Amino acid sequence: MDMGQLGSILPLILLVVVFYFLLIRPQRKRQQEAVKMQNSLTPGTRVMTTTGLFANVVTVDNEDVVLEIAPGIETRWVKAAIGRVVTPGDAPASDGDPVADQADLDDEGKKETEATVERDGDQGSSTKQS
Length: 130
Description:
The protein has 130 residues and is α+β, with helices and mostly antiparallel strands. It folds into two domains: 3-87, SH3 type barrels, CATH 2.30.30; 88-117, no CATH class. The protein is 40% helix and 22% strand. A hairpin with a 2-residue loop joins β3 and β4.
């Protein structure tokens, strides 16, 4: 092989190596971790789907997972739709937890934001009638 030919092929080889280490390898690692997490799902686990839906795992079949999104409401999803397992510290403050919802209530039993709107007379509304 001539040095001129090697000099013209070397940048192409270098580009392939850089793409492998910067793009392909990390993506493959993330895929393997996601599959490992999806295969380790057990009933009772709190999860978030890739679309942002929080739910509890009820049953796990071969490639399907039944999720309970509210008491008595169950839906069937494919395992690949599970984005991550949610630990108690990751969950949003008001995701259906009655204790957290009760903490947001004021003296009259209304949510704080509703009481503020009533007190202010809905002055911030952009749909005022003239």
